[in-house]
Amino acid sequence: MRREIALDDFIKGIPKAELHLHIEGTFEPELMFKTAGRNNVNLKYTSIEEIREAYRFSSLQDFLDL
Known about the structure:
Layout: H1 2-13, H2 29-38, H3 48-54, H4 60-65
């Protein structure tokens, strides 16, 4: 029991970090089409090239508008 308490205190005391990602930056167009098809999700894009074009950003605002 004492060892469990010490371990709990140790874990509570060590520094923590939040690790996360934004899916917009990790989904390749091919995988987007494959995943959408598998899950019967309609995309507003009709081709992989159309997605690539939509994901060419010249500013932060372009990205946020996506």
